[in-house]
Design goal:
The structure holds 2 protein chains of 2 kinds. Chain A is mainly alpha-helical. Chain A has helices spanning about 10-30, 35-60, 70-85, 90-110, 115-135, 150-155, 160-165, 170-200, 200-210, 215-220, 225-250, 255, 260-275, 280-295, 300-315, 320-330, and strands at about 5, 145-150, 250, 340-345. Helix content of chain A is about 75%, strand content about 5%. In chain A, the strands form 2 sheets. A two-stranded antiparallel ribbon of chain A has the order 1-4. A two-stranded antiparallel ribbon of chain A has the order 2-3. Chain B is mainly α. Chain B has a single domain, classed as ABC transporter involved in vitamin B12 uptake, BtuC, CATH 1.10.3470. Chain B has helices at about 1-30, 40-55, 60-80, 90-115, 125, 140-160, 165-175, 175-180, 185-210, 220-230, 235-255, 260-275; strands spanning about 130, 135-140. Chain B is globular and about 60 Å long. Classes of the chains: A mainly alpha, B mainly alpha. The interface of A and B includes residues 121, 130, 137, 269 and 311 of A.
């Protein structure tokens, strides 16, 4: 009797349908939601992208990086450089942001991979600091004080005129909607891409390396190559997100673009709270994070303190995060990657 | 001659970085734990000394001796009840817990003491200097460097001449076998972190006496400490001192060329060493 290998579950089929509905709602959101909602959603989506990519690094690749701000900042500065120095349009410059982030990821990995485990974390942080200090020397892009996107570049941006006509909104609102749609596209591609990667042979190799590097190598998995693959993919995506975030902000400074709190600490907290090592985790995490931020926004440093303490408690009590708790109790997987064997010689009641 | 002076200042600055780094090196050496909150704990130590100085109206040099046992107790409790629970094969829990601790501590200090920069009260001693041949050295930097050397000598004595040191080394090599011999690894780890916190307090004293500090400077101190440890080679305390000196000299030389390059030059020196000697200058035989 033949057997089959499946990854789909009934829950994941329902999730696919619900996901498709959610995507349609999100795409059409600008038609009925106000500008404030669009800006909030932009923030949520870009943080989700950063969280998914950090999760790919740490949760699947075992590479705890505290230097993701290097790629956000470098991507953002590459985008500004392309617009200000080369006269490019901001929208295609976002792609360049990803490419430049990828380019600095190569030497970063070269240095950081020399450091093991925990020291890798601080190593990436040092390199992010080096990049920030170097960029702060770049006087044509404002040096330490930073600069803004020129008005003519933002007003004639691709697609903005079309969106103005389509939705009958002013130019500033149209730019937010454009940024929102791009962020949505980036988030979908990121989640889809990571899910696809994890379901391919490479994803299996990645999980094997994470669970036991020596055992994985003994069956022919090239652990070092997997690390490079994950690190470079994550840097490229983080660079794209950086370019997009700063296209929407239209104002940049080294301290903001290379902020360890904004682009790495928040992201780590989102992943840890939601559940590290799952695709669902960062989605849950970003929603919790946004809710906490809305509730505690007026309390300044208390808010960050709460996040820090919450991350400690979750790491100790439920290391798989909120989603881990839920999926342990219910067996629910919205993005199943586990391969299950069905059929074969045993009858169903014998299994 | 200005260069000799610059390099001498750099060497003495290296003493401060070695003090930052010794605690980190000690904790890593014994339990393979990288404490990302190390820099913030140094800053917290500086605030503790400041509070004692303000409340009791005593000299910082006296206050540090009150702060030391308090910080030892804090380190002991922190390790015994929080960090010990994160130790294991998985590197994620200790990293993420200490990172959470770093952010929580930073913001607690921000809430308690505001973002204004503070400084420990200075006396005539802190501004005094001596002439050594053609160069002038500050008493404060000399004291810092002397303290760093003393701390390292004391730690080496502790490690190789005492029963506690033997327990440290045994637990570091093999915690399970050590526990068969009547050693409690959980308490050994707690004591090690307690001692690291005593060194942190000494580092905090000089940090607060030499320059302004505010709640946000912790992470940068962590990075300098980390660089010194890696340059020296994991587990070598004298290597850590040399690592601190290399960072210090690179920073003062960088600053002499262009003030904006000070921090950058230190990081570059670290990357160069990492490139040439990935395991540091004096690596231990294994790990």
């Amino acid at each position: 009797m033949a057997y089959t290998v499946t990854t789909q579950t009934p829950a994941s089929r329902i999730a696919t349908i619900l996901g498709a509905i959610t995507i349609v709602v999100l795409i059409s959101l600008p038609f009925f939601a106000g500008r404030g909602t669009i800006q909030d959603m932009f923030f949520i989506l870009t943080m989700l992208v950063l969280a998914q990519l950090w999760n790919l690094l740490a949760g699947y690749g075992g590479l705890v990086s505290i230097g993701q701000q290097a790629f956000v900042g470098m991507g953002a500065y590459a985008m500004f450089g392309a617009v200000i120095l080369l006269g490019f349009d901001p929208v295609p410059s976002i792609l360049l942001a990803g490419v430049v982030a990828l380019m600095i990821a190569v030497p970063t990995a070269f240095f950081a991979f020399r450091l093991n485990g925990a020291y890798f974390a601080i190593g990436t942080w040092v390199i992010a600091e080096v990049v920030r200090l170097l960029v702060a020397q770049w006087k044509t892009l404002g040096g330490g004080t930073g600069t803004s996107l020129p008005r003519e570049a933002t007003s004639d941006m691709w697609f903005v005129a079309g969106i103005e006509k389509l939705l009958d909104v002013r130019s500033a609102a149209a730019r937010d909607i454009l940024a929102y749609w791009l962020a949505l596209a980036l988030a979908l591609v990121t989640i889809g891409g990571i899910y696809w990667l994890l379901r391919t042979r490479r994803g299996l190799a990645l999980a094997a390396v994470r669970d036991n590097s020596e055992a994985a190598q003994s069956v022919g998995v090239d652990a070092v190559r997997m690390k490079w693959l994950v690190f470079l993919t994550s840097a490229f995506g983080t660079g794209l997100a950086g370019g997009l975030i700063y296209m929407q902000k239209a104002r940049i400074s080294p301290d903001a673009a290379f902020s360890v709190t904004d682009w790495t600490a928040y992201v780590i907290f989102i992943v840890v709270i939601g559940g590290i090592g799952t695709i669902e985790g960062p989605i849950v995490g970003v929603l919790v994070f946004f809710t906490l931020q809305t509730l505690l926004a007026d309390f300044g440093s208390w808010y960050l303190m709460t996040l820090g303490v919450l991350a400690i408690v979750i790491m100790l009590v439920a290391p798989r995060g909120l989603w881990g708790l839920l999926s342990e109790r219910t067996g629910l997987h919205l993005f199943p990657i586990r391969r299950r064997l069905t059929g074969g010689k045993l009858k169903p009641e014998e299994r | 001659m200005i260069w000799v002076d610059t390099i001498a200042q750099g060497i003495l600055l290296g003493g401060l970085y070695a003090l930052f780094a010794s605690g980190l090196s000690l904790v890593f050496g014994i339990m393979r734990l990288v404490n990302l909150a190390h820099g913030d704990l140094i800053v917290m130590g500086a605030y503790l000394i400041l509070v004692l100085v303000t409340l009791l109206g005593i000299s910082p040099f006296l206050a540090v001796f009150i702060a030391m046992p308090l910080m030892f107790a804090l380190g002991w409790l922190l390790q015994r009840y929080l960090l010990n629970r994160t130790l294991g094969d998985d590197i994620l829990p200790p990293l993420l817990v200490t990172f959470g601790l770093s952010i929580a501590l930073q913001n607690a200090l921000l809430e308690g003491f505001s973002a204004d920069s503070q400084r420990l009260p200075t006396s005539a001693l802190t501004t005094a200097s001596v002439n050594v041949g053609p160069i002038t050295l500050g008493i404060m930097p000399l004291l810092t460097f002397g303290s760093a050397v003393l701390v390292i000598v004391a730690l080496n004595q502790l490690f190789y001449r005492t029963e506690l040191g033997r327990a440290f080394r045994a637990t570091s090599d093999d915690a399970t076998t050590a526990s068969l011999m009547g050693i409690k690894p959980a308490n050994i780890f707690a004591t090690a972190t307690g001692i690291a916190m005593v060194i942190v307090t000494i580092a905090a004293l000089y940090l607060g006496l030499r320059a302004n500090f505010d709640p946000n400077i912790g992470p940068a101190r962590l990075i300098y400490a980390f660089e010194a440890v890696i340059i020296g080679g994991l587990g070598s305390l004298w290597g850590t001192l040399l690592g601190g000196i290399i960072i210090g000299v690179a920073q003062t030389v960088g600053a002499a060329i262009n003030p904006e390059w000070q921090i950058l030059a230190g990081h570059i020196a670290f990357l160069v060493v990492l490139l040439v000697r990935p395991r540091g200058l004096f690596p231990r035989a294994h790990d």
